[in-house]
Amino acid sequence: QQPVQSPQAVILREGEDAVINCSSSKALYSVHWYRQKHGEAPVFLMILLKGGEQKGHEKISASFNEKKQQSSLYLTASQLSYSGTYFCGTEGDSWGKLQFGAGTQVVVTP
Amino acid sequence: DGGITQSPKYLFRKEGQNVTLSCEQNLNHDAMYWYRQDPGQGLRLIYYSQIVNDFQKGDIAEGYSVSREKKESFPLTVTSAQKNPTAFYLCASSIGTGGQNTEAFFGQGTRLTVV
User: Fold this and answer.
1) Hey, is the C-beta of A93 within 8 angstroms of any chain B C-beta?
2) pLDDT, tens digit (0-9, with 9 covering 90-100), for A20-69
3) What is the DSSP string of B24-63?
4) Which residue from A16, A47, B43, B90 could staple onto A100, CB 3.0 to 4.6 Å apart?
């Protein structure tokens, strides 16, 4: 079953913050985050493994709560380059089965 | 340069015809994946392969078939049994499976249109 992402879309002004959530109904081994710009392939941002660690990429960070089977992506002090669709990907007990959510469209305006 | 190549970029097919989408990688990755992307539905997993000569169905395998005879290649055939094949198809690969090994590298995609 695909992970569930929220919100579906968010519009930000440059410098504002946003949070994107990803949840799963099954136990997770890892959570991935990718960003896809229009007409391009998705690009890897970061991966979080079991253990609740937090990671960062520029001013984008993420957390993973394995007990709740949830992950959150934090966009801090957003830049125009942050615009795109963000996908979370999850890997559960079926190793190798990397499933993605429906995506969250992020638009950052000047 | 290492990477993952999908061809063709655009493909048109008549109803009732099978069509094969190519995916080749020179990253020496063991795992490969096929996803279908439709507006509002994200990336849906069609098939995945963890190693040569082995593959598993994903969430929407009906009407599709794959083969993994070589490590570098994972072609996807869209058969006439697929009722709504018009979509954007993405191929990806990763070093392996489990944790850090599953960082996925994507191809540029093939847009299939049934006419």
Assistant:
1) no
2) 999 999 888 889 999 999 888 999 999 998 765 666 667 899 999 888 89
3) EE-S--SEEEEEEEETTTEEEEEEEEEETTEEEE-SS-TT
4) B43
